[in-house]
């Protein structure tokens, strides 16, 4: 018996990356649309026989024809906030319009499922939530019925909203907050969201409907802070709401305290001023399930962190820039080599552990200082960390770097995403040498203007501490690791 095939857009994102394996468990065949298919190679479900990954871009309608062909339904889980910056609303409208038109021209397509946002209608709706409504309208402009699930804050390990809540509570014993932290909302656990998304296809009565989904608790953001404080077993936090803290100031404050940039934090902060509570119980009646309370959802999310079981993270989404064009102009190179008395597999395992909670093998105080400076000027800093302490995949965030090349046992390439007057790449190349290994570490920097040149010469004296120390730490770790024969790769080649 053949499986129904469904298309998932946004499979590289937070919700989409978790939805795919659950659709497979439910008996569907899944086709994933991605601008960068390599970002999905490291996912544990990528090699499943019922998964197909196709390259495509919603901004290029011609690329959607093959992706939609033969699919009976499509999940629209695309959001341009990371990719398009301040123009994300218009960009999202255009992408949704393109998708609705392409779906309407596909004979097999019977349903589009969209995950949007809760919020009272009217002129007071934040720009972020208004954008979600506009996407709904654009998707519904075609001939294919659209099922919209509207959710408030999604509580789950790795979600942007959850990360903001956790970091604020962990880092600030006293919080000066906007007065709208007292606004009511109805958060929902990510596992409940996924259950709704999967079950909605099997229930015909949901076709063409707008369904509010939320957990059993209606609480304020202040209440969620208190619940998080209890879950983390921290002393009581003092929360002082004031009326003068604007969304812009709130986003800068969130940027400094949490891993999120102010560009992402601002629309999320603006959304807090809207009451986001379910106005209908239709979803619960059509698709009954056990809904987790706020405390249960927070406990479940924190448990995933403790078990290193975070499936996806908000950092997974967004485009990966192409490699810098190193041809022409000034390119500075700092190349260092070390011989290691360990096989390439052990050396690669040691290299793969850099960053996040593992540290950078040497001069960690300098890395932390650079991360703090980066946060102050609007960059990601070190707080994004890494999703898993051991494994890395193409597209993974690694503190203020992004994995842009990886080959098991041989090569790791990182592209800098910190604020820089130029473009920077850090590479590790491993080869066999005299019964052991040779590790070549290369830093490339292409400066932008005079400021870029001055920056390179300003940091050059620190390279000896940082890069030489890193190589020494990698060597010591690799030589201490036992060689594993027939070790299974952690990432796809």
Describe the protein's architecture and organization.
The protein has helices at 14-25, 64-68, 81-84, 88-104, 127-139, 160-171, 190-199, 221-231, 247-257, 262-271, 282-286, 294-306, 344-352, 364-376, 449-480; strands at 5-9, 29-34, 51-55, 73-76, 111-117, 146-151, 154-155, 174-178, 184-185, 188-189, 210-213, 219-220, 238-242, 332-340, 397-398, 401-407, 411-416, 422-433, 436-447. The model is unreliable at 485-493 (pLDDT under 50). It has a seven-stranded parallel β-sheet with strand order 3-2-1-4-5-6-11, with helices on both faces. The chain has a six-stranded antiparallel β-sheet with strand order 14-19-18-17-16-15. A two-stranded parallel sheet has the order 7-10. 36% of the residues lie in helices and 21% in strands. With 493 residues, it is α/β, with parallel strands linked by helices. The protein has two domains: 5-314, Rossmann fold, CATH 3.40.50; 320-480, Alpha-D-Glucose-1,6-Bisphosphate, Chain A, domain 4 (2-Layer Sandwich).
